[in-house]
Amino acid sequence: MTSSEPGELFVIRTAGNLVAAYAPGGDGIAASIEYAVAVLGVSRVAVCGHSGCGAMTAIAERHDLGAMPTIAQWLRHADAAAARVGAGAADPVSTLVRANVVAQLSNLATHPSVARALADGALVTEGWVFDIGTGTVTVVDGADSATTPAA
C-alpha cells in the first residue's frame, strides 16, 4: 500500500482509526504521536480509514455497545464525524468512514508536537480511505471530498 521498506513506517493502529484530541496526562497513543513527531522527526502522517470498518459500522448502525463500555467510550472520539453525517446518507458507513478520517485529522492537529511541526512546515498530514475490495487508496481532504488516488 505504501511501497515502503522495513523501518520506514511508524504505525499506530487504533480501533476506528481514532485519535483522541490532546488532553493533559499520559496515554499510549498521545505518547506515540509525540515520539514519532518530536523524537523521530516523522514528516508525513496519514490517518487511514478503510471500507467496511467495524467501528464505523457500529456507530452508523447504532449498535448496542452496552456490554462493551470501554469500546463505547472509545468510539465517542468519532462523535464529530457522526454528527456531520447525520441520518440521511445514502451509504452511511462509507460516508462515516470518510467523515471520520477528516475528524481524526482535526484531533491529531490538537497534539502540541503535531501543531508545532505543522506550523514549522516540518509535517504534512493527510487522510486516506483504503478500499479493501479494490485495494485502492483515496486521499480525502479537509472538506471531506475525495481527491486523487494516493500514490
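Next protein, fold it too.
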Amino acid sequence: MVISWRERFDAFLFDMDGTLLTSIAATERVWTRWAERHGLDVPTFLPTMHGRRAIDTISAQGLDGIDVEAEARWVFEAEMADVAGIEPAPGIAAFLTGIPIDRWAVVTSALRPLAERRMAAAGLTIPDVVVAAEDVSNGKPAPDGFILAAQRLGVSTQNCLVFEDSGAGVEAARNAGASVFVVTGFQHAPHSFGHPSATDFKSLLIVSDSAGSLSIEKT
C-alpha cells in the first residue's frame, strides 16, 4: 500500500545527527568523557544534549569557573577525532538522489567541519546549503537555522518540510513555521512528537509534480 501525503513543498531541510546519519555512539563517547571530567551524572546528562549546539549544552549546565568556549572547543576536537561507528540512515542515499541539489539543505547543531566530516564518513552527498552551529546566533530550539537555510535556498520556511529526530529540532522547525517529518529509527525511545514519521527512509519516495513541487509517499 502507498500512503500519499498531500502537501507540496518547495524544499526539504534535514537535521543531520539522528536523521541523515547516526553518530550517537561517537557523540555519547565524547560527551560521557566531558561529563565525567566535570562531575556530572552521565545517565541524567546525556539525554539533554541531543539536537543542541555544544556551546548551548555546556552553558546550560551552570558550571562555575569554566570557559564555555574552551570547553566547546575540547568537545569539537574530540568529536573530530572520533568518527567510529558513523552510519547513514537506511535508505537515505537513494532518497536524496530524488531531490534536486538546489532543493535541499542540512541544518545541524554541529560545527561545519564536523558536519562535513561525519557526512563524508557516512558516505553522503554534502549539499550546496549547509547551515551549521557557527552560522546562527541562536541554536535549536530557536528557528534561526531553518529560516536561514530556507533563505539560502530562496524559499519560504512555510513551504519547507523539515526532517528531524529530536525534541529541540522539532520545536525549532515548528517555530520556523515549517512542516515536520520525524525520523525515529535512531532514537532510544522512538517518539513522533505528533507528526508524520518513519523509522528510516527505506519506505519513503520523492514525488515531483508538473510544477516542480515536491512531496513524499510512504510505501
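About the second fold: The CA atoms of residues 105 and 129 lie 5 Å apart.
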